[in-house]
Each structure stands twice: as structure tokens, then as C-alpha cells.
Prior knowledge:
This protein is 53% helix and 5% strand. It has helices at 2-23, 31-34, 53-57, 60-71, 75-78, 83-86, 109-131, 139-144; strands spanning 94-97, 103-106.
Amino acid sequence: MWRWSRVRCAADALRFFAEVRQRAGGRAQWRRLLLRPFCLSDNKLGNIMQKNLSSLVSSPQQTRFGNAKEFALPSDCRQCDVRFACNGECPKHRFMTTASGEYGLNYLCAGYKHFFHHIDPYMRFMAEELKQNRAPARVMEWARRGEVRAS
């Protein structure tokens, strides 16, 4: 269990880093990798020990999953200021209704919004540090000085 938790944390850290890079202007095509279509057995793409990762990511099944995931978003998600980070999250978690009654809202939406709004100034600071070729770890010193401003 400990090892899986570390792997999961590393995957989440990579995802957040990718989003920071994207927000900072490094518009790499991470979106397809972040769709993670392995949460339901119907969406399994294959075994990375047996197939090349790039072939899995560019497979027709992955493309269909990605398109379906995006087009099934309720309008609240499409207009959300933190969509860049969660993109509606995993479809298996989309069973709530929006304030206007539209089905497909992620049940973790309120928590995600709170979390991403909370970390936004830190992420912006680290993105700027990366743009300036400085260590993003300077965020700790910056936060201790109390220079954090909510977005």
C-alpha cells in the first residue's frame, strides 16, 4: 500500500506540474496523457510492459475516450476557471447535477475548486520562477514572507 501511495502521489505531482507548465505558457499537449482512461475496465488501453506508451496514448480507443470525456461536460464545467486542472475529472465521478439541473457534475467539484483556488498563487509563483530559470522551491521562502495574495 505504501508503495502504491507513493506512485499515485508522484503521478498527481506530475499532473500538477504539467498543468503549471501549461498555465505558464508551455502549451505542451499533456491533455491526452492526463485523461487517464484506466479507471474503468471498459477503458483499459493495454499494459505498458507489453505495448509502447505512445501507441496507447494515440490509440483510437484513447481518442474516443478523450472526446467523450470532453463533450459530456456540463456547461458549468466548460465555463469553470479551474477546468484546466481537473477537466471534469474521471467520468465515473460525474453523477451530481449542477445548480441549473444539468447532469454530469463531478461529486468532488466543490473541493477541487477550493483546493485549486487555494494553491493558485503558489502555482503562479512557481510558474514564474520556472520562466525565469529559477528554482520553484523558492515558493517556501516567498510564502513565509507572507507575500501570498489570493487570486
